[in-house]
Amino acid sequence: MLAIDVENLRKEYAVQVNRTGLSGALRDLFKRQYRTVTAVNDISFQIPTGEICGYIGENGAGKSTTIKMLTGILVPTSGKVVVGGYVPYKEREAFVRGIGVVFGQRSQLWWDIGVIESFQLLRKVYRVPEAEFRARLDELTERLQLAELLNRPVRKLSLGQRMRCELAASLLHNPAILFLDEPTIGLDIVVKTEIRSFLKTLNKQYGTTILLTTHDLQDIEALCSRVIMLDDGQIIYDGGLDELKARWGKGKEIVFHFTSPVEAPRLAELTAGLTVEWRRENDVTASVWVPAEETSISEVLSRVTASLPIADIRIVETNTDDIVREIYKSGSAAGQREGVPV
Q1: What is the pLDDT of residue 342?
Q2: Structural domain count of the chain
Q3: In this predicted model, what pLDDT tens digit does every residue of 114-172 receive, in sequence order?
Q4: Is pLDDT of 247 > 80?
């Protein structure tokens, strides 16, 4: 069963073109000129129930515009969008009861009143029965460690505390689908880790479908098995995170810790004939870069371990941050769009 079904979704905006000079400004007063900007350009994807999917792209790629159409905030220019069995912008009142939304830079909590009072107001908005609300609140309070925060005004919370409360607010009505737009922006690593752990547990326990947009690709690595990459309003990649690494990763680094000092010429001798690059950190630690599809990691490992005493070995993969940064920097994504699953 599909939680989200999007087909040829498009969103265009009319943007005013300002003419130059005093005469141009005067003409703009009486007759304005506009140009059409396409923020989302005929994208299609489907997300099954219970999946955690990462939705990534540079600033201006169309991520937030997509989320706003999926949540019914914006009306598409054209195309089909069905979320939880509803067309979001047409059946909004019934639709919002089945979704939760967290915008990292916007709050759904009232600034000057206690957190618990905001929760009570949201209970009435979503028409959650009191007994069900109490049970859900108790669970969220325990899992997100909110007990000491419930009676504080939102303006007195730290950013990490507020984001935990925002998550709870979005889940009070037990939605089947959760939209997260930059949920960990500005948070320290401890709070990020707590939120990621909570989201994984939520998905596992309740089968909650999660669509996550973020610039922090560690969120993607920690939570998502699938990633959709957007560039200039178009999908340039839709598939598994492992496949993305395999397709765009340039290789792996093997870090060796030896039990006794090893000279650089000896390391080069052991891997003679292989396309690798050695770097010595000190007398007993060295790393070797193994390019993808050129050299076998197993061959490098077997040659080195057969000849030198090893204390420890660590294999470091190219991380998702590096891969995505390289795609956008080099323009490779646009150049290899053909054949990429969309």
Answers
A1: 32
A2: 2
A3: 999 999 999 998 889 999 999 999 999 988 889 999 999 989 988 888 888 998 999 99
A4: no
Does one domain contain both 184 and 264?
Answer: no
* Per-residue pLDDT at 293 exceeds 80: no
Q: Is residue 174 domain-shared with residue 300, that is, in the same domain? A: no
Residues 230 and 274 in one domain: no
pLDDT of residue 320: 64
Together in a domain, 221 and 259: no
Q: Provide the domain limits for residue 300.
A: 251-317
Q: Please list the helix, strand and coil fractions of the chain in percent, rounded to the nearest 5, in that order.
A: 40, 30, 30
Identify the H or E element spanning 7: strand 2-17
Q: What one-character-per-residue DSSP string does 158-224 give? A: -HHHHHHHHHHHHHTT--SEEEEESTTTT--HHHHHHHHHHHHHHHHHH--EEEEE-S-HHHHHHH-
Q: What's the chain's length in residues? A: 342
Residue 339, judged by CB atoms within 10 A of its CB (0-12, 13-18, 19+), counts as exposed
Alpha-carbon distance of 232 to 41, in angstroms, equals: 8
Based on the fold, state whether residues 237 and 284 are members of the same structural domain.
Answer: no
- Over the chain, what is the mean pLDDT? 85
